[in-house]
Design brief:
homodimer, 7 strands, alpha+beta, two-stranded antiparallel sheet, about 10% strand, four-stranded mixed β-sheet, globular
Chain lengths: ~230, ~230
């Protein structure tokens, strides 16, 4: 069963929902048969990579005093779920992080890299927006430094994968993140409670066989019979 | 949109249903966006490849006098749809034909090869059970002779693909063929009328976007807002 999660590494609800999802998944009896894929969704595509700024300044510019207040509400909720949350963190372009997440996906390490990116950004207010910072984080989850460096130096590396994820999100009608797609059949938008995600895992599992809609047509069976159906 | 059709080259209802499907597809307005894939299903897996015999003898052995009578009923129905149908054709192992169909799939020629296999078997009562016969038919749809010869000489070539198709059919609950899978979401078993196949194409097309089941969760939107939902 394939679970795809669209999100951004600077998206607070993605941070919260991804942690909830992994908790629900760990408790799910068929978790070994579940494959999880990160899908890229930049909250601010086209942001100047040189423009790194504190989140309170960014939110104030966008929403006035309400901006930082909104973030403090999310912080309270995240901490209640034992997720460290710094409101004095930074924000910047996440394109390089997404390109590296695709490299990590190829190596089977995307969920590990996503986790350390979330921890660095939300838990420690560390920058995840410069090449040296990303290189250390990626190397820390076992990616080869040379491969990471090569991706960071080539702006086209994995760019098509990031864009494909974003256009798939648009096709699915996902205008915000997190966005969960269960087995390409069921979608959940937003940070559902852990129990909602657990229930989605269970019900998607139960319906994983595709129902046969019509079975009245004539068939040939392995015994060699190909009878004409009688009306 | 992907349409997968499980079938066997000696299966009369597959012959009839595949012709109906291609007729429905040609008339379907979005036919250029439809990809068709042959999926292997041997009616008699494990049949001795050296054992080639006339169909009437095979059916009599299996079902008594009723066997050939059953085939004549199918013949009447097929001819009414302008599909030539010889009841004096041969039957044998179809494993090599399926392995070649997978080679043809790699070259984008599987539907063409399937068509000539059906025509040779049902229309002309020609053998499709020996390497020289298969080589000529495959070359006739543009496959390189060397590649075809190599597959015919190596019993393991594309064997895993044939077995994967057969085990996927079992997972889907398909115990006979033809079996149609529309976009991995809807299945039709048996030789439906052309109108039923046309309707399945239309309705699968209409529902190709996946509905979002729950949209009440908290999301971060591209404007940077990540508001806490108010109960």
């Amino acid at each position: 069963m394939l679970i795809e999660i669209w999100g951004d590494v600077v998206c607070p609800w993605c941070y919260v929902a991804t942690a909830r999802f992994h908790k629900a998944l760990a408790a799910f009896e068929h978790h070994e048969e579940v494959q999880v894929r990160h899908r890229s969704f930049e909250l601010e595509p086209g942001r100047d990579p040189a423009h790194i700024e504190p989140v309170p300044a960014f939110l104030t510019r966008r929403f006035g005093a309400q901006g930082p207040a909104m973030d403090k509400q999310v912080a309270t909720l995240a901490r209640a779920e034992k997720l460290p949350y710094r409101t004095d963190r930074l924000v910047g372009s996440t394109l390089d992080a997404h390109r590296l997440l695709h490299l990590a996906e190829d190596r089977g390490r995307a969920q590990q890299l996503l986790k350390v990116l979330f921890e660095a950004n939300f838990g420690r207010a560390a920058s995840i927006f410069t090449a040296p910072a990303l290189l250390e984080l990626a190397a820390g989850v076992g990616l080869e430094r040379d491969a990471v460096q090569a991706v960071l130096e080539d702006p086209d590396a994995y760019l098509a994968d990031v864009r494909a994820d974003e256009s798939a999100a648009a096709d699915l009608g996902a205008h915000g993140v997190p966005f969960f797609l269960f087995d390409r059949r069921r979608a959940l938008s937003g940070a559902q409670p852990a129990e909602g995600l657990a229930e989605a895992l269970r019900s998607t599992w139960k319906t994983r066989t595709i129902p046969v809609l019509e079975a009245e047509g004539a068939v040939c069976a392995p015994d060699g019979s190909c009878a004409v159906p009688q009306p």
